[in-house]
Design goal:
By secondary structure, the protein is of the alpha/beta class. The protein has a single domain, classed as Aldolase class I (TIM Barrel, Alpha-Beta Barrel), CATH 3.20.20. It has eleven helices and 13 strands. An eight-stranded parallel barrel has the order 3-4-7-8-9-10-12-13, surrounded by five helices. Helix 5 packs parallel to helix 6, helix 6 packs parallel to helix 7 and helix 9 crosses helix 11. The longest helix is centred in the middle third of the chain and has 16 residues.
Length: 353
């Protein structure tokens, strides 16, 4: 971390977290943040559900909810980025305050509730972007007041799908009432069948991923894998935030919402390894939850992930962590004798089962 970045983070941490979030996006859009450009290392070249990636380090959904900073984020060193979540209609989300730092735990709690400007505004921005080497995906959400939430996911995909490289079905946010009920076997199968019908109607079919919660039983995971394979989705993202509060120190630990950051690492990685075991390598997996270093990203890869995603750790370490993680992972692969990151996928899974 450079002295300038350290100063910037220090100043941001003195103000309300959601306002700080908005200011960080403004700084990116204004060109005030130094960006390294693509991190292009041959050992890190890989594919994710057919998408060629310069490196497997991605940005998780939730940071750039409205696709306002796609261009600068594509130059921040990520191998792929995900924006959103987008819902058919704009919605304000839950009442403020709704984002809380847990600095002692290197974590955050949010209860945003899919606040976004809606698929029309987001789709317009995505359609105007210049396509490059970094794939851009969209997290699909449902409006809180929707009578048929399953239909909302398909609606957003139909509208925005032509302008993105992949999409993610997000049924795992804890901040929209009863949304996680859609992870149940019958409801999930019906939802994914509808989404895949919308995908088939796109001018250019794109990979569709499913993002799941970490708070699932073994039976839940078995059902999700069965449904995922039956519906022929492209892969699974493991995991979203957790409702668990185990082992936290911060005074904000009792706030309602989804917990992300360092405390999620172990739980999400165990779910990832279980999915890798259950799928027998038939579905690409993306590991997300608590990644803040090259070693942790590498552990996700070895647990079964083809790629990883970051978000909360940037609150504490800044954007400079992205190229550091990519280059650090390259060094770890070289240390262990892997000619390419794809050869390391799942090689350490047994340690997490």
């Amino acid at each position: 971390m450079t002295p300038v970045e350290r100063l910037g983070l220090s100043l941001l941490h003195r103000i309300d977290p959601e306002r700080a979030h908005g200011l960080s996006l403004l700084a990116l859009r204004s060109g005030l943040v130094p960006l390294p450009g693509p991190i292009d290392l041959p050992r890190l070249h890989t594919t994710l559900a057919g998408l060629p990636l310069l490196n497997p380090v991605g940005l998780a959904a939730g940071y750039d909810k409205n696709a306002e900073a796609v261009a600068p984020l594509s130059r921040a060193g990520f191998g792929f980025i995900e924006v959103g979540a987008a819902t058919p209609l704009p919605q304000p989300g839950n009442d403020k305050p709704r984002l809380f730092r847990l600095s002692e735990d290197r974590a955050a709690i949010n209860r945003f509730g899919f606040n976004n400007q809606g698929m029309e505004a987001i789709g317009t921005r995505l359609s105007a972007r210049t396509r490059g080497q970094v794939p851009v995906g969209l997290n699909l959400g449902a409006n809180k007041t929707a009578q048929n939430r399953a239909a909302d996911f398909a609606t957003v995909l139909s509208h925005c799908g032509p302008h993105v490289d992949f999409a993610t079905v997000n049924v795992s946010s804890p901040n929209t009432e009863r949304l996680r009920d859609l992870q149940g076997r019958a409801a999930l199968l019906a939802l994914l069948e509808r989404v895949m019908e919308a995908r088939a109607a796109l001018p250019r079919p794109i990979p569709v991923f499913l993002k799941i919660a970490p708070d699932l039983t073994q039976t839940d995971l078995e059902d999700i894998v069965e449904v995922a394979l039956k519906s022929r989705i492209s892969g699974i993202i493991a995991t979203n935030t957790t409702i668990s509060r185990e082992g936290l120190k911060s005074s904000n630990q009792s706030e309602l919402g989804g917990l992300s950051g360092a405390p999620l690492f172990e739980k999400s990685t165990r779910v990832l390894a279980q999915l890798s075991h259950l799928t027998h390598g038939l579905l690409p997996l993306i590991g997300v939850g608590g990644v803040s270093s090259a070693e942790e990203a590498y552990q996700k890869i070895r647990a079964g992930a083809s790629a990883v995603q970051l978000y909360t750790a940037m609150v504490y370490q800044g954007l400079s962590m992205v190229p550091q993680i990519a280059r650090g992972m390259d060094a770890l692969l070289a240390r262990d004798g892997f000619a390419n990151v794809s050869f390391a996928v799942g090689t350490g899974r047994s340690a997490w089962l």
